[in-house]
Amino acid sequence: MWKTAVTLLAVGMGLPTVHYSGVHRTLKPIISQQGPNMTSRAAILMDERTAAILYEKDAFRQLDPASVTKMMTALLVIEHGHLSTMVTISRSAAQVPGSSLHIAPGQKYTVRDLLYGLLMRSGNDASVALAQAEAGSVRKFVAEMNSKAQELGAFNTQFENPNGLTKPGHFSTAYDLALIARKAMSLPPFRQMVGTKEYDILEHRDHRHRSVHNTNQLLYTFPYATGIKTGTTDAAGKCLVASASRNGQDLIAVILNSHDRYHDAKKLLNWGFEHWSTVEVLQPGQTVARIPVIHGKNSLVPVTVSRPMWLSIPNQETYDLLIRPLRLTAPVRCRQPAGFVSVVTPGQAPEVELLRTKRADGVRKDRFSWNWFKRVLSAINRFTVRQ
Question: N or C: which end of the chain has fewer CB atoms below 10 A?
Fold first, then answer.
C-alpha cells in the first residue's frame, strides 16, 4: 500500500495549510527493498518511464560494453531518418571481423534492413556500413555517437567504433547504457526491431531474401521481454541490456560481464515488477489545488499541471505532494503560472512541475468601484487646491 499526502504551503500569504490524503491498495505483500544477488560485475534496473534507479550494482564503473554499443549506432541512424535509403556495401564494411550479418561488397540493402541485421544478428559489418552511409566515415559517425552520449547525460561513456569491438578508450557504464536504452526505446522503429524474433531481409542487387533470428534469448524464454541487445567479447564477458513490460510498467535492466546474463536479467526484472510500482501521480487538466486570488471575483482559482507526472515508488511506501503557490492578484489569465508542485518520496530526488491556472479570473466589481471612488476624491482634492 502506498499513501499520498497533499500539502498547500502558505508562502508569505497568511494562508491556512490544507491537507488531503488518499490511499491506493495493492495485493502485493510487504517486502524488503534489498535487491537480488547478481552474478554480473555491474548491473542496474531503471524504470523506463521515470528513469528512476530501482537497483544498482557498480552501475557507475567504466567497463567494456561489447555489442550493446550498437544501441547508440541504431539510435543515431533512426533519428537521422531515411530508413528506406539504399546502402551499397563497401569492402571495408564487409571485412569487419566478429559477429556478422554476412554482407558482401557491392550488395545493396535498405537502411531499415541493415538496422534489423545490426540489432537482431549483432552484425559488426552492418554497423560499419551504416556508419559510412550516415556520416561518410566511421570516424565522423563515432564523433556523433560521443556527442549524443553527452547530450543524454552518459558522461562516463566513450566510443571508439560503432560495433563494440574491443579497443582502448572504448567504455561505458551500466547507468549510461540504461540512459541510452531508455532514449532508444522511445523511438518506435527501434522498439519494434529489438522486440522482433525473426525478420526477412532483402538484398536488392541479386533480389535474394533471407531470414535472420534475434540473438536475444530472453525474447524466447521470458514472457514479458520486449528487447533489447546482447553483447559478448573476451574483454567484456557476457552482457545484456534487457527490457520488459508487465501491467503497464516498463523496466530496463543492464547486465555487464555476467556468468549467467539471462538468469540475472530475469531475476532483476521480476524483482522490479514485484517490489516497485510506476504511479501516475498527476494528470494534465486535473485540479491539483485551488490557490487564493487577491481582489478576484472568486477567492480561489484551480490550478493544474501541463504534463503527466509519474513516480517510481516501492510498494508499501508513501509520497507527498507539496504545493508552493505564487501570489496571484486579479485579473488572472488562463494558464498563467501559479506555483509549483513537488512530488517527494523517501530516498529519491523530488520531481517538480510548474502549476498553471485552469481558468481566468477578473477583478471584483466592488474593487472597481473603490478604485473609481478614490480617483474621484483625488480629482476633487486637486481642484480644491487650485481654487
Answer: C
Contacts of 295 (CB under 8 A, 6+ apart): 329, 330, 363, 364, 367
Separation of alpha carbons 8 and 15, rounded Å: 9
Cell of 315: 510498494
The per-residue pLDDT for 346 is: 79
Q: What DSSP string describes 22-69?
A: EEE--SSPP---PPPP-SSSEEEEEETTT--EEEEESTTS-B--GGGG
Going by DSSP bridges, is the β-strand pair 225-233/276-282 parallel, antiparallel, or unpaired? unpaired
pLDDT of residue 91: 98
Cis omega (within 30 of 0) for bond into 53: no
DSSP string for 8-34? E---SS-PPPEEEEEEE--SSPP---P
Q: How far is CA 364 from the centre of its chain?
A: 45
Stretches in the chain below the pLDDT threshold 70: 1-33, 365-377, 379-387
CA distance 190 to 281: 28
Non-local (6+) Cβ contacts of 270 within 8 A are: none
- CA-CA distance, 176 to 181, in Å (whole number)? 9
Catalytic residue IDs: 67, 70, 122
End-to-end CA distance of the chain: 78
pLDDT at position 130 is 98
CA distances from 354 to 9, 142, 168, 227, 338 (A): 15, 38, 45, 35, 8
Distance CA 177, CA 174 (A): 5
Q: How many CB atoms lie within 10 A of CB 356?
A: 18
Structural domains of the chain, ranges and CATH numbers in brackets: 2-26+280-365 (2.60.410.10), 42-258 (3.40.710.10)
Would you call 106 helix, strand, or coil by DSSP? coil
The dihedral of CA 177, 189, 199, 166: what is its sign?
A: negative
Q: What is the pLDDT of residue 384?
A: 54
Largest CA distance in the chain: 105
Per-residue pLDDT at 187: 98
Closest listed residue to residue 35, CA positions, set 224, 269, 254: 269
pTM, entire model = 0.85
By three-state DSSP, how is residue 135 classified?
Answer: helix
Q: Please, are residues 45 and 54 in contact by the beta-carbon 8 Å criterion?
A: yes
